[in-house]
Amino acid sequence: MSLAPRAVLVHRTTEYEELLARHGTHGQAAFFLAARGRSVDAVRERHERTHRALAEVAGAVPLTWRQSRVERADLDRFLFGPEDVVVVVGQDGLVANAAKYLTGQPVVGIDADPGRNPGVLVRHRADRARRLLPYAVEAGATVDELTMVEARTDDAQRLLALNEIYVGPRGHQTARYTLELDATEVPTGAPEPQASSGVLVGTGTGATGWLRSLWEQRSSALALPAPADARLAWFVREAWPSPATGTSRVEGLLDPGEGLRLTVESDRLVAFGDGVESDALELTWGQTVRLAVADPRLRLVH
């Protein structure tokens, strides 16, 4: 017998809850913000809007379904099942935070604070949840299949991201590595030793954020991919020319089957996705990481 669908509500701790955790009481939080020219009222109002949205979505879950909640900080410890419908209640970035832990489950993005979020990934208001949840499990449900990026090390560690993966130093040191392109893991050119402040590989979804800032900064002629395009764009940040390091390969596109391979020549580098540094791969001298289009896609419900 197949299990009934489970609605998994993904949310994050609000700014107001963080203030209370730090200062203990509403009054002390209000005093702290007032001393800095800010009002606690606006922060509390956003908190209340978020919790009203969560309550409305929870109340819209069909009675025959199961229901669970997971906070952003616990995503890496939460076990998603194949029968889940993932309902992200919050900001666009929260969808990206959840995406790396999913394996094809439909995702419904609910904007908890309309007017403050771009709404690229959290496309719906809470009052639409009652219709959207049953629709998400229908065979004919319309979804956008968004491309993701994968980093895989030579010792089988793996990292997924919806926007981008950064490989570089954790702090402000120089990253040293050898960069090499490949097609279906066969080298397609001479490797180049490089020294830089890191490498960014991103998707069409990420092309509206950090990736785009690099693209605009260098007036790049690359055609950035769209969110559903099975291509990635990559940029080397502040490559440094020297007798031992080159700068001839600093940007490009990756099609399916193509990869960007970095062999570490620093004491330690990290690879993390979508800005989540707490869930990073640690890379040591001589280790290789390959970045490419991921097989899984994020299935975002219209």
Account of the 3D structure:
It contains 6 helices and 19 strands. It has helices spanning 15-23, 26-34, 40-60, 92-99, 129-136, 210-217; strands spanning 6-11, 66-71, 84-90, 106-111, 143-146, 149-153, 158-161, 164-168, 175-183, 186-187, 192-196, 199-202, 232-236, 251-254, 258-264, 268-273, 281-284, 288-293, 298-301. The longest helix is centred in the N-terminal third of the chain and has 21 residues, at 40-60. It has 302 residues and is of the alpha+beta class. The mean pLDDT is 93. The protein is globular. The strands form 3 sheets. Strands 6, 7, 9, 10, 11, 15 and 18 form a 7-stranded antiparallel sheet that branches. Strands 2-1-3-4-19-5 form a 6-stranded mixed sheet, sandwiched between helices. A 6-stranded antiparallel sheet has the order 14-13-12-8-16-17, with helices on one face. A hairpin with a 4-residue loop joins strand 6 and strand 7 (158-161).
Please provide the count of β strands: 19
Helicity, in percent? 10-25%
Radius of gyration in whole Å, from Cα?
Answer: 21 Å
Mean pLDDT: 93
Oligomeric status of the shown chains?
A: single chain
Helical stretch tally: 6
Low-pLDDT residue spans: none
Alpha-carbon distance between the termini?
29 Å
